[in-house]
Amino acid sequence: MTTITDTTNSTTSGTVNGTANRTATRGQYRRPDAAQRRTAGSGGAPGGRVSVAVYAEDLILQTGMIHQLRVRPEIELLPEAEADRAQVSLVVVDMVDDPTVQLLHRLQRNTSTRTGLVVGFFESGALQTMIECGVAAVLRRGEADQDRLVHLVRAMANGEGVLPGDLLGKLLDHVSSLQRTVLDPRGLTLSTLTAREAEMIRLVSEGCDTAEIAQKTSYSERTVKNVLHEVATRLELRNRAHAVGYAMRHGLI
After folding, report:
1. At residue 172, what are phi and psi to the nearest 5 degrees?
2. What is the dihedral of CA 147, 153, 156, 157, to 10 degrees?
3. Which residues form the HTH luxR-type domain (predicted)?
């Protein structure tokens, strides 16, 4: 596999906003003109420009991504020297292999940038890798037209995640499997409550007092009080009624 490089290391030309034959030389991109600077807001804000750094594994992928994004006023493509300040990093590859994973881990260290993956072939085993690498959005290359790419970039800049429907289904299955095989045997959950805490708050919601909760859960009354106090302290809840309301609003019970 060719080493993944920042797509700003290239030379490409084209027509932008009606001006023909403007050329972006190596390491440089056309910057917003004065009018664009007057109208552009902060990246991710409605009507604002989103700063994007693009990484690709070969020149063909590189050129295609630049061609799609550089004509859109919502996007500000950054040169390699400024890639660290990007709001969004787009990684364009055929498949998720070792060099891709290394790049994703490197990008993950920049907490001010969210990473999206445009991939040709997504193996089922790559889902766990994607999660571990902090990828916020995935788009298949065959579906990566200009509008979908811009939607992906703006969604990430606004703190949203984007996944194809089938990958979303696999992710939910993965989470369910994780809960069933790893967390349940240890009495843990993916929520902010442990299984024991959720059960006790559920019993509170049913009108049980401390003694009744202790009897139903086979814990001492002191343990019940300690558990409920811990939940209230951790989640900054005022009382048991507040705890029940919180748990119900967040789907925890």
Report:
1. -65, -40
2. -120
3. 186-251
